[in-house]
Predict the 3D structure of the following.
Amino acid sequence: MNIILLSGGSGKRLWPLSNDIRSKQFIKIFKQEDGSYESMVQRVYRQIKAVDPEATVTIATGAVQVSSIKNQLGDDVNISVEPGRRDTFPAIALATAYLTDIEGIDPEETVVVCPVDPYVEADYFKALKGLSDQAEKEEANLVLMGIEPTYPSEKYGYIIPKDSNSTSEVSTFKEKPTAEVAKEYISQGALWNGGVFAYKLKYVLNKAHELIDFADYNDLYDKYNTLTKISFDYAVVEKEEKIQVQRFNGQWKDLGTWNTLTEAMEDKVVGKGILNEECDGVHIVNETDLPILAMGLHDVVISASPDGILVSDKEQSSYIKPYVDSIVQQIMFAEKSWGNYRVMDVESESMTIKVTLNPGHSMNYHSHNHRDEVWVVLSGTGKTIVDGMEQSVKAGDVITMSSGCCHTVIAETELKLIEVQLGREISVEDKELHKLK
Amino acid sequence: MNIILLSGGSGKRLWPLSNDIRSKQFIKIFKQEDGSYESMVQRVYRQIKAVDPEATVTIATGAVQVSSIKNQLGDDVNISVEPGRRDTFPAIALATAYLTDIEGIDPEETVVVCPVDPYVEADYFKALKGLSDQAEKEEANLVLMGIEPTYPSEKYGYIIPKDSNSTSEVSTFKEKPTAEVAKEYISQGALWNGGVFAYKLKYVLNKAHELIDFADYNDLYDKYNTLTKISFDYAVVEKEEKIQVQRFNGQWKDLGTWNTLTEAMEDKVVGKGILNEECDGVHIVNETDLPILAMGLHDVVISASPDGILVSDKEQSSYIKPYVDSIVQQIMFAEKSWGNYRVMDVESESMTIKVTLNPGHSMNYHSHNHRDEVWVVLSGTGKTIVDGMEQSVKAGDVITMSSGCCHTVIAETELKLIEVQLGREISVEDKELHKLK
């Protein structure tokens, strides 16, 4: 089975764990059997591999997520990187071209496209296989998943099937309705449209060539930022005559708010936290080292990260966005392809960060124009290259770098260091990349 | 007026702002006219000086609080340091001997003793003056303040006066009663005993010599830890025949729990914090750099410090102690006489702290047996002395110190630095002081 996972943009509705550069799918919140925690993207990837170890998984996403994906899934995962934001039709067209032109998959093969962030069980992935098998038959050009509604939601579009068979032709699509109208749709046998569908690669390739003038993947990639923004639903799905829907009645949850996310949590406390006996319906998700003590609270979520602390009534948590927008702050924690960094201290003319490099990884070779830097190695071994000079480093070693000097550090084992940045204009933009000779 | 302020021990009931080494009286929570915040001890000291600029204030406290007191009140304040914990009679006897023998005050003068942590207004300090003036007359050996009760509290002892005059002889004392019994006392004209009283210095000196064999202040200080633990109430007050009480009917609050403390807060938010409109009766006291967002909460206190995060129903907050006792942690922030330090990162074989030295101040000249250290100066100017070698330092300078090497830093201007400690056994006990030649 070929799968394209759409890994969507940033969002603040799960602040302080999601922010401008960190999407909710990367929050490690789901307990695994060994007691450690995994993120939505790790969970979905693991689930796919459990159902179909041979599955080819390609993640379609923006450049900003590449580091997090590699950090969480390893370097071997296929990533179709979108050079900009152009809505879902260009994204799916690009990913489809990536499958044929880069991964070398036969255009006669089918692919299933689905979002990376539904909270589902193994039966969902078996259903994806069902979509793929159905598309294989070419009875239709597109085979959609129709999720059997559990309540008259206003959050989803609806698919009206022609009949109530497990596979049916689609009669029509309905936009997100009011709850009242949703009830009516459901009484007519309508299904939720979860944005999950299968097709033969050649079908979307042909659609793409109809709408866009391009030669191949590389050409499409190069002109990506000039493409018209248009959704796949609007460009393709709603216009397609030969279209089927397959019913799915297993668990399918959208964990987009703290209220829904905490429902899916196995433990009430992730990270350091204590709930007293008077607490009821309280969840703590704590990514900081600070212990959290909660007393006498009801239906409250508490979350802390290097970005901030949220304490919210669970219902109220869905109204978080404007408040988070009002908090202007720099990114305090980031996962990178080579490891991660955390801002520990910010002064007017200095910034102190902690850098963790994964074994075998290194930073880019770079320099800064407006700041000096000092590294103090806390643990691990590796080597630094400063203006071309190599040096082995271990715990306790200090490296000083004046502005303009080119530098990198390469980790042998996991390597942790404190970086002190000093200067009047400290900014992430002040960074020039260099080639290592 | 001479005043002895009793600055009591540590406590965890205002965790995470109070802890084993930081008492509640040092929390900066009260807004001043210029918008900055002051602590209880700063507030009381300022209030005394406003009522009587000539007042001689002596703070009686344990060694652990000396750094915080000097940091908050400056070096000029008189401190009678108790070498151990011996209850209030030895403490008051020592402070009284300090006044005569160290500050050189005539034993014929009076002194007022009061706790450092009541939340009061200017009229309270005028009432202290009243106690002092009354003690001056020598109608009685002790003149107590009797606070007119506002409710039948179970938290205080009661004083039954002989009559309802503003100054009266004391009929008897009552231990902390039940609310029912308190009502009865109040109907009989009883007053709260706030532990505030005035006497002539010679009176307590004589009592001390009756009960303890000592020559002078220095002798009493030297044998302090051998003294019997006994309260001033039990040793002196309850046995005294010539004893009067003066009524006080102004504001007098004991801010010992989060519930009572937040009642005295002018602002709902101290530090970085946002309350949405659905919050009601919510207070935030945030000493960290992390912004706090509170949504849809009622009668909740949220407090964050480098030690942890509390989110508690206000009523429930009085039951905090056992939960905090269960949180084993190192001290993450401390005020010292020379400035303060904050722990930023703890790894198995390293610890990174941020040190702020006040202008003109320095650390002790010291060494460590089991750890190396690196200093990176963030801002300010000063000099370091490492194994006797002096060096001027400024932002960006790096000083490396191997274990065993003696070192200190002396701030000219306010000086901030990052200290990275490296070693297998990092402990506050690993510190030897040395004389600077």
Q: What stands out?
A: Residues 64 and 328 of chain B are 20 Å apart (CA to CA). Chain B touches chain A through 58 residues (CB under 8 Å). The longest strand of chain B covers residues 191-200. Chain B has ten helices and 30 strands.
